[in-house]
Design goal:
alpha+beta, four-stranded mixed sheet, four-stranded antiparallel sheet, 10 strands, binds flavin-adenine dinucleotide
Amino acid sequence: MDFELSARTLELRDQLDAFIAERVDPAETIYAEQVVASGDPHFHPPIMEELKAEARGRGLWNLFLPESEYGAGLTNLEYAPLCELMGQSELSPEATNCMPPDTGNMEVLAKFATPLQVEQFLQPLLDGTTRSCFAMTEPWVASSDATNIQSRITRDGDHYVINAHKWFTTGAASPMCTFAILMGVSDPDADRHRRHSMVLVPFDTPGVSVERTLPVFNHDAGGGHCETLFDNVRIPKEYLLGEEGGGFAVAQARLGPGRIHHCMRAIGMAEKALRLMCERTQQRVAFGRPLADQGTIQAQIAESRIEIEQARLLTMKAAWLMDTVGAKGARFEIAAIKVIAARLATTVIDRAIQTYGGAGVTNDWPLAGMYGHARTLHLVDGPDEVHLQQIARRELRGYESFRSVDLS
Ligand SMILES: Cc1cc2nc3c(=O)[nH]c(=O)nc-3n(C[C@H](O)[C@H](O)[C@H](O)COP(=O)(O)OP(=O)(O)OC[C@H]3O[C@@H](n4cnc5c(N)ncnc54)[C@H](O)[C@@H]3O)c2cc1C
């Protein structure tokens, strides 16, 4: 394994760092003010379009896409440190067009889209003129088992008819969101992994509605996390993504790089929390000395550093495996980092909150918001338990002969 950062990554990292410091960080207040002034928590503030134009001008655009035809052509290993930087700055992923769920959607479109779909769906996303969402999870079934998904995609002549009730459709409330990639059952009689398909559903099609947004830890902003209904929605058959029955293949292609992105952003958040913790504990004096001089605080700082390094190394290994042997060969490392990065972020941010005392849980500091976000990472893209199960199953393979009970 060679995790040496390439010259290109180092250069881009410096450029991204400068962009965040010079333009994105100062824009955070303006962004918040523009949203408040609009009276709509899902308003798309003009400052974001200014940041996007600037990022594009600086060559910091679509960095996540390994396909050089569409994106920056970086490997997962090259992109990972850039993604970590973005994790430290809430607005930078969108400013650089590297924001989920669009990133995952662009990745699958780059892989599976027909020329018509490239023109109508992928290109506007690449240009940052629209946004999109991913509609898989449903309120009435345990969606961590994707074979449970019940929404129907029914072929009718030259059309598909969609009947679906989804929730946690992240981004659907954004005025920029123009379509969903939706997963549903297209052949209920097929094998359980060939039952589902993915389709592209434009939001201006009759029958599509965003019923409500779901505040997450009382936070309801940006594109929101939405409950969405698709009531007899007719789309042209050309909007099938991949092949009929190929929904799982598309879903899996979507998750590999996306998980690395999530994890590197989580590591970035943990780095930011540790930095804030170090600053605060040097400044704050209790019982006659700075908090940083207390042994228990030092232990927490040291544990945080160790855990960040561990998580980063494992994530870099997963990225390197993705680049060298592909997502299939990296699937256990990808499952492992998904668990580790969420755990790391919640643990380190929690420690940082504690060192800030009461201030840590207020909105005067970013820690409370970061904690809420980190906590959701234990669920987003599948709950921790599903990844642990996957790892345990591999670990237990070969030990079947030790079983003392025959349950058949
Ligand atoms: C902030 C946020 C954003 C999201 N964005 C999107 C999005 O854009 N699009 C989308 O489609 N979905 C999205 N989701 C949904 C997310 O992917 C699902 O919540 C997740 O997959 C779990 O599905 P579920 O909520 O139906 O939980 P369930 O499947 O009902 O599971 C409930 C719990 O059961 C336990 N469990 C499940 N399986 C096992 C197992 N094998 N072993 C032990 N315990 C187990 C876990 O503790 C799990 O949390 C988002 C979720 C959140 C919180």
